[in-house]
Amino acid sequence: MDVQAIRAQFPILSTEMNGRPLVYLDSAASTQKPAAVIEAHGRFYGHDYANIHRGIYELSQRATTMHDEARRKVQRFIGAGSWREIVFTRNATEAINLVARSFLAPRLEEGDEILVTEMEHHANIVPWQMIAAETGAKVVAAPVDDDGVLDMKTFASLVGRRTRMISVAWVSNVLGTVNPVDEIIAIGRRNGIPVMLDAAQAVQHRHVDVASLGADFIAFSAHKMYAPSGLGVLWGRCEHLEAMPPWQGGGDMIERVSFDGTTWNEIPFKFEAGTPDIAGTVAFGAALDWMEDIGIEAIERHESELLGHAMRAMRQVPGLRLLGTARDKCSVLAFTLEGAHQQDIGTMLDLDGIAIRTGHHCAMPLHDRFGLTGSARASLGVYNNEEDIDALVAGLRRIAGMFQ
Ligand code: PMP
Asked: What is the CATH number of the domain that holds 142?
């Protein structure tokens, strides 16, 4: 893989921050966008834009076809059996809320349990807490060990008669831990419990094939996949989506409306009330084409070599503690630096043009588990190279020297 050629496709990577070349190490929060995606977005608005599904005229039909094609690209990208299993949402968060509200809430009773893990993003905790509070159910969290690995023995023991749903991050946005999702899905299947995967940090790094995976739902966000923000995906098994009631009402999600009663459109439109982000969806299709041209296996190989390089180099920085050292780890490097507050680390690196994230990364319970209020986090995308890591490590060494 020619990383230099890939970098050249990202206009933002040739800009400067604070007078220094930008070193972008925050792809877990959101990835930058290649020219192919930016151009597809602009081209659509310049040449093909109209509202979809409603127009008889040529332009609206063209926009509708392009929107439909984008959905089929998502279908192919994740190996789904049908385009009807692909529901467009605003983001991964909305996809999880949709499942919580429409799939699980109607089935929950007092005393029921929803099993998650300590390493979840708030998006995979709070929607379940909200429906649990309304029904008297509770959210149970399986523990992680000191390396940031899910304790599977305890996880299995927490699956019980009252477990109604299992929902787990495929990859942790703090630890980078890749969870054993095959094993988790097998546990769900054996016990007749539906399994949802929060794939927001997985689909851009690893090959995903939902047809062979055996999960019931997966959720992810386009903006972490080199595509525009404001767009996400819920993949669900047809039989679940068919049986679920809609969760928002309005245009497009109906078959027929009258004051005597309204009937619902077919899936996935039943869950897509109102005008969607049409241009974003088309640009998402372009992003998936772009990723497929590089090849997800090549992306995985590159990022995993870079992760190895980064872990080796960061371990040499005095007082640096890596958070998450699982054997199966992917693209995320959270850490603390003795004597330095994470916000100081972030601010000082920013002066060198290095963008990392600091704080709780929407995973407060995980930081509580490690006795921390927050951490600093560098995360990788396909465009990062060893020079980015070397710049980060040089910056961290300087900061370590100042604070220790
Ligand atoms: N889950 C995980 C693991 C994430 O990393 C994120 C984004 N940080 C989300 C869910 C939520 O994604 P979004 O904000 O795009 O809905």
From this structure: 3.40.640.10
Among residues 130, 121, 54, the alpha carbon closest in space to that of 91 is found at 121
CA–centroid distance, residue 359 to ligand 1 (Å): 15
pLDDT digits (tens, 9 = 90+) for 82-136: 999 999 999 999 999 999 999 999 999 999 999 999 999 999 999 999 999 999 9
Based on the fold, state whether residues 16 and 136 are members of the same structural domain. Answer: no
Are 93 and 235 members of one domain?
A: yes
Is there an atom of ligand 1 within 6 Å of 177 CB? Answer: no
User: Residue 25 — φ and ψ, nearest 5°?
Assistant: -125, 45
Asked whether 169 lines ligand 1 (CB < 6 A), one says yes
Any idea which residues carry the catalytic annotation? 362
Same domain, 323 and 183: no
- Contact by Cβ (8 Å): 24, 379: no
Among 240, 271, 292, identify where a domain stops: 292
384 lines ligand 1 (CB under 6 A): no
Mutate to test the pocket of ligand 1, among 31, 221, 231, 364 (most ligand atoms within 8 A of CB): 221
Over the stretch 146-194, which tens digit does the pLDDT of each residue have? 999 999 999 999 999 999 999 999 999 999 999 999 999 999 999 999 9
- Cβ contact 309:301 at 8 Å: no
Q: How many domains does the chain have?
A: 2
Are 61 and 128 found together in one domain?
yes
280 and 350 both lie in a single domain? no
198 CB under 6 A from ligand 1?
yes
Residue 81: exposed, middle, or buried by beta-carbon count in 10 A (0-12, 13-18, 19+)?
Answer: exposed
Dist. CA 305 → ligand 1 center (Å) = 24
> Is residue 300 domain-shared with residue 387, that is, in the same domain?
yes
- Ligand 1 atom at minimum distance from 94 CA: 16
| Best probe residue, ligand 1, of 30, 118, 173, 284 (max atoms within 8 Å of C-beta) | 173
CATH number at residue 330: 3.90.1150.10
| pTM metric for this prediction | 0.98
